[in-house]
Specification:
By secondary structure, the protein is an alpha+beta fold. Helices cover 21% and strands 27% of the residues. It is built from three helices and ten strands, in the order αββββββββαββα. A six-stranded mixed beta sheet has the order 4-9-1-2-3-10, covered by helices on one side. A four-stranded mixed beta sheet has the order 5-6-7-8. It is globular and about 45 Å long.
């Protein structure tokens, strides 16, 4: 009985030491303004990046609201939309809405997606690594505003503004064009199960 107070004091000291030794995590706020077709990324309240985006077009609207990321995938393929590649996906709704890189970077600044928030592959890589480092629970995604009218481009697609570093980081291995061979292998490996191989003619250089 005489040793219990000392034991609890040592336990409290150890817990305090662990808490002080744990690295501090930054809070990330990702704000998407659909009226401007623009994303602003703030870290601990300080604006760090401003990038053009492409949100859902009419009929595929990206929902407004305040969200937390639910999952992340470095390379995801959309089963719903013809296995479209979605590099560096950050999912934020239960319906499958995500922030991800796009191969249709010329369309950034327009509302053209099927509901996701598209950004350039370089910016998706930067954002993915930032959220990965700081944690999904320390990240918020806020969507606001309304999509502009048909054909109206409100954010200039000039690559955006990296406020803090003015740098460009390109996605490893996905620099030029969508990888059709990889999409096909991914589909065949995960979703096609046949008892014996069946030759399938592949168009356009698969």
């Amino acid at each position: 009985m005489y040793y219990l107070p000392g034991f609890f004091a040592a336990l409290a000291f150890s817990a305090a030491a662990l808490s002080f030794g744990a690295p501090a995590r930054a809070n990330i706020l990702i704000t998407i303004d659909k009226a401007k077709q623009q994303m602003t990324v703030r870290v601990d309240g300080d604006p760090r990046y401003i990038w053009p985006v492409s949100t859902g077009r009419a009929g595929y609207n990206t929902p407004n609201g305040n969200y937390r990321p639910t999952s992340m995938e470095r390379q995801h393929y959309s089963r719903k939309y013809a296995w479209a590649p979605m590099p560096h996906s950050i999912f934020f709704t239960n319906e499958g809405h995500a922030i991800h890189g796009t191969y249709e970077e010329a369309g950034l600044g327009h509302a053209r997606s099927h509901g996701c928030v598209r950004i350039s592959r370089a910016h998706a890589s930067i954002l993915y690594r930032l959220v990965k480092a700081e944690g999904m629970k320390n990240t918020r995604v806020v969507l606001e505003g309304h999509i502009p009218g048909p054909g109206q481009m409100v954010a200039q697609n000039d690559g955006g503004d990296d406020i803090s570093a003015r740098r460009r980081t390109y996605d490893d291995g996905y620099n030029d064009a969508p990888p059709p061979r990889r999409v096909y292998r991914h589909y065949r490996r995960r979703y096609y199960r046949a008892p014996f191989p069946i030759p399938i003619p592949l168009p356009f250089g698969f």
